[in-house]
DNA sequence: AGGTCATATAGATGTCCGTCAATGTAAAAT
DNA sequence: ATTTTACATTGACGGACATCTATATGACCT
C-alpha cells in the first residue's frame, strides 16, 4: 500500500520577512482599514487630482485650479476631493469663497510600509 | 474703480518635491496604469490573501491552504487570486493538481515610490 | 474506465461607484 | 438688494465588482 498523496507541505519556517505584509496575516478589521485608503487612491481621476496638488509642493491648492486641469464636471471634482478628504489624504480649508486642499503629510507612510517588499 | 477680486495666486515655485507624486502631474495613461495595481490591492479579501502568502516568506503557497484561512467560497478565492495574478502581484504555478501562488518580488516598488512623501 | 479531488469558469444577483445635470448655499461684487 | 461666483449636495443612471451556486476541467487514484 502506497503512501497517499498528501497536500503540499506548509512552509512554516518563521517566514523570511519578505515584506511588512509578512509580519503577520492581516485580520479582517486591519485589512478593511488599509483598503479604505487604497480605495481612495484607486481611481485615475483622484490620483491625478492628488498629483496636481503634490506637484505644487503639497501646499494648499484652490479647487478652481483643479477644475481647469482635468476634463470633468465641477460636481465630479468636488465629489472626488471629498473622498480624498474622508480618507485622510487631503485636508480642506475654506478661504473666503474658495476651498483649498492640502496633502496630508505622512498619510502614506502606513501604506508605504505595507508595500515594503524586500 | 477697485481692483477686481483675483483668484488665489498659483504657487509655481518649482514645487518643493514633497513626494514622487510631485515630480509631475500624472497623465491619464500613467494614472490608469498605477490604479490597476492599486485596485487589485483595494479589497480586504485580496489584501488578506496576499498577506497570508507573504507571511510564509512570499514563496509558493497552495491555493488549498488559502481556502482554509478565510471564510469565503472556493470560487471566490479563485476569482481573487486570478485578479492578483492579472495585476502582476502574484504568479501562478501548477504542480500536479495543485495551484501554487507566489508574491512577485518588486511588484510594489513602483507603488511605494509613488507614495514616497517626504 | 470510473471516481475523487483541486481548481477554474459560467451565470446570476445585489451592491457599490463614477459621472452628470440640476439645485442649494454662501460669500463677494455691483 | 440683487447678481455673480465658487463650491457642495441631490438624485438618476449605467457600469463595475464581490459573492454565490452550479458546472466544467483536468490530474491523480483504484
Summarize the structure.
Chains A, B: Residues 26-118 form the HTH arsR-type domain. The first copy, chain A, is an alpha+beta fold and 118 residues long.
Can you give a write-up of this model?
- Chains A, B: InterPro entries: ArsR-like_HTH, ArsR_HTH, HTH_ArsR_DNA-bd_dom, HTH_MetalResp_TranReg, WH-like_DNA-bd_sf, WH_DNA-bd_sf.
- Chains A, B: It comes from Kocuria marina subsp. indica.
- 2 copies of one chain form a homodimer.
- With 118 residues, chain A is of the alpha+beta class.
- Chain A has a domain at 34-114: Winged helix-like DNA-binding domain superfamily/Winged helix DNA-binding domain (Arc Repressor Mutant, subunit A, Orthogonal Bundle), CATH 1.10.10.10.
- Chain A is built from 5 helices and 3 strands, in the order H-H-E-H-H-E-E-H.
- Chain A has helices at residues 28-41, 44-54, 63-69, 74-86, 109-114, and strands at 61-62, 90-95, 98-103.
- Chain A has a 3-stranded antiparallel β-sheet with strand order 1-3-2.
- In chain A, a hairpin with a 2-residue loop joins strand 2 and strand 3.
- The termini of chain A are far apart.
- The model of chain A is unreliable at 12-16 (pLDDT under 50).
- Chains A and B meet through helix 1, helix 2, strand 1, helix 3 and strand 3 of A and helix 1, helix 2, helix 3, strand 3 and helix 5 of B.
Amino acid at each position: 500500500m502506497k503512501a497517499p498523496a498528501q497536500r503540499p507541505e506548509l512552509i512554516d519556517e518563521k517566514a523570511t520577512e519578505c515584506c511588512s505584509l509578512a509580519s503577520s496575516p492581516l485580520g479582517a478589521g486591519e485589512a478593511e482599514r488599509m483598503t479604505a485608503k487604497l480605495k481612495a487612491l484607486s481611481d485615475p481621476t483622484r490620483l491625478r487630482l492628488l498629483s496636481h496638488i503634490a506637484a505644487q509642493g503639497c501646499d494648499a491648492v484652490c479647487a478652481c485650479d483643479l477644475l481647469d486641469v482635468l476634463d470633468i464636471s465641477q460636481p465630479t471634482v468636488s465629489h472626488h476631493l471629498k473622498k480624498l478628504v474622508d480618507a485622510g489624504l487631503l485636508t480642506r480649508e475654506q478661504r473666503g469663497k474658495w476651498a483649498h486642499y492640502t496633502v496630508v503629510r505622512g498619510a502614506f507612510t502606513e501604506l508605504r510600509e505595507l508595500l515594503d517588499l524586500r
